[in-house]
Amino acid sequence: QVQLVESGGGLVQSGGSLRLSCAASGRTFSINTMSWYRQNPGKQRELVATITNGGERDYADSVKGRFTISRDSAKNTVYLEMNSLKPEDTAVYYCFVKWLNINFWGQGTQVTVSS
Predict the structure, then answer these.
(1) What DSSP state is assigned to residue 24?
(2) Residue 73: CA atoms inside 13 Å, Cβ hemisphere, count?
(3) How far is it, in rounded angstroms, from Cα 84 to Cα 82?
(4) Alpha-carbon dihedral sign for residues 76, 31, 107, 57
(5) First-last CA distance in the chain
(6) Contact in structure between 39 and 47 (CB atoms under 8 Å)
């Protein structure tokens, strides 16, 4: 089993920045890709960013150029640096990993961007 603990969410003004962290513990071997999703009530959950063990990164068009995903493999931790935040970035952000074809989700952390 894998446990995911998220932190770093909060309230920020438009144009501000936040850094989210997600630490994986337990049987963390065989984790190849780590991702961030986000979701607001009534809306479909969307993929925000993904990073592989090789450092390959993908971003949603809506956050490209503003967000940066990174990882510390030794700590089994993935980060999401969010800059130039907009009100439409407001959502619950979820860390996601796949381990031995089993999906694991973090508890979610609220990000609220005020205007």
Answers:
(1) E
(2) 10
(3) 7
(4) positive
(5) 40
(6) no
- Smallest Cα–Cα separation from 9: which of 99, 101, 106? 106
The two three-digit tokens of residue 36, written as one number: 């961030």
What is the CB neighbour count within 10 angstroms for residue 98? 15
Closest among 18, 20, 11, 29 to 83, alpha carbons compared? 18
User: How far is it, in rounded angstroms, from Cα 91 to Cα 18?
Assistant: 13
Structure tokens at 40: 């607001």
pLDDT tens-digit profile, the chain (115 residues): 899 999 999 999 999 999 999 999 998 888 889 999 999 988 999 999 999 988 999 999 999 999 999 999 888 999 999 999 999 999 999 999 988 889 999 999 999 999 9
Q: What SS3 class is residue 12?
A: strand
DSSP string of 59-109? E-TTTTTTEEEEEEGGGTEEEEEE-S--GGG-EEEEEEEEETTEEEE---E
